[in-house]
Amino acid sequence: MEIFGIPSQVLMGQLMIGLINGSFYAVLSLGLAIIFGLLNIINFAHGAQYMLGAFGAYLGMKWLGINYWAALVLSPLAVGLLAVVIERGMLRHLYKLDHLYGLLLTFGLALIAEGMFTNFFGVSGESYPTPEILQGGVNLGFMYLPIYRAWVLVAALTICFAAWYTIERTSLGATLRAATQRPDLVQALGINVPVLVTSTYAAGAALAAFAGVLAAPIQQVNPIMGSNLIIVVFAVVVIGGMGSILGAIVTGLGLGLIEGLTRVIYPEASAVVIFLIMVLVLLVKPAGLFGKQA
Prior knowledge:
The chain is mainly alpha-helical.
């Protein structure tokens, strides 16, 4: 069976790969959007935090015997605690300064993390086994669906919805937004604003680490896995709208599908199609598809 002259198995397979990539884009850009939207910090260390999440799962398995399911909780928690140290020790001094200072600091932290892990582990990469219960696949007739990739999609969509709902539809989210816009007023109501700010940065970093654990069985765990992805994720955030939670999720998934479709129709353009879309969006709507004009 063919669709537009393309074998259906090839088309659906590439769309599924695009959707899986889009789920990673969505989770990572969601973390970036949360940190920028609520803290006004351009977190260039996000790719390094993604890499640390994957290495946390790998090293936990190798040294401590921690399985995949425990790593999904413990690795984001460990990266989140590291983010608390970074925010309290460094970032909190930059909130009133230009965005460039935060970008340069987090970029430097990313280079340090990448250099340290490259020194100890090299760049060849380490394999992480797929959990036994998620091995194999299902033949849907028009395509073969690996069970683990289906799990990644479900897990990513679930965590994205949970984060969106918490920020946009709960009193905690309203308090977080208020604390970033009028911290003096929120502080006067007896709410500890510094703790809220620190928790927000830690949550954004934990999202990146969660995506890293999800990615570990799919790709090689290596020190440059985050730097290879972060530029694309920043493009996704710009297209969706800087600081837009919904924009990060919808744009991440949509661009993943477009990238997968491009691999079938015109493979040579698959590496640049997201950046071409970013240019077009910036020309037409500089604030992004879901962003608000300043």
